[in-house]
Amino acid sequence: MEYRKVGRSGLFLSSLSLGSWVTFKNQLGVRKATELMAHAYDKGVTFFDNAEAYGDGETEAIMGEALKNLKWIRDTYCVSSKVYWGGDKPTQKGLSRKHLVDACNNALKRLQVEYLDIYYCHRPDPDTPIIETVSTMHHLITQGKILYWGTSEWPADLVMKARSVAKQYNYTPPIVEQPQYNMFNRNKVEHEYRYLYKESGIGLTTWSPLESGILTGKYCDGVPSESRLGLEKFKWLQFLIEKEEGKTKLEKTKKLMALAQEVGLPLNQMSIAWCLKNKNVSTVLLGASNIEQLDSNLESVDKVDLLTDEVMIKIEEILQNKPEADPDWKAH
Fold first, then answer.
1. What is the CATH number of the domain that holds 131?
2. Of 3, 54, 77, 181, catalytic
């Protein structure tokens, strides 16, 4: 396993990490989740990601029971949560001081840990002044309930604003952003955020490297019942392949599969290794419903060198979606 710093912070995470969004609760109970986490840990994974919105808190409860069963020494792993969608009542959502504090306390109880290594603001909240959010995150850090905080799917200018407010009032700034990033979703990471890395030292914990499974090739001939898109709760994701854009992705996926075969590795590994080629990526969050799937994904860390300049050029020729450079864009 390779370990990377999160931006310019002092925190190191395994370059591949384990997420819980779809698999925990929907496919894995406590026993199987414990087995999966134990296997990931034995393979060098040190970061396990969660959120209050995942399974209405049940994925955190499952992960908490797994951590209790595993009895790992606390300084050998990192665990995160995200806050925004906690319930239907006005006080159970958003990034107000009220919800941030309540949600953090609830996450600690469900995960059965004394602190969160990273706490993310899951989306921007237009109804809460940003100084309220920034100051509350700083407050949670001074209380020892969280160590670092970050954002997820925030626009670049709002991340910059949060950091500016933190600097102005001597609060702890966000150190990390968690965006979607894969061969089909590149603009945020490669274009919109490009000045954040140099100017703000933001790290990235990216999700969906396989575009909800599309970049494994398993949807090229329909939707397997046991797949993510086959799950009743996630059938809404089928729009990813049913619309014209989705059909185009499937056609490109077939070409990528042929290229991966030429290179000598499965498409899922080529897709994950492609994400790791971006040095601004601190860790790639993986989803897996069984140990075999996890092992295959984890092997990607050893395949990055197979993606030579020549192979990367061939990938670009298939994708035809590299974000355009904009020399006049300025961070603000």
1. 3.20.20.100
2. 54
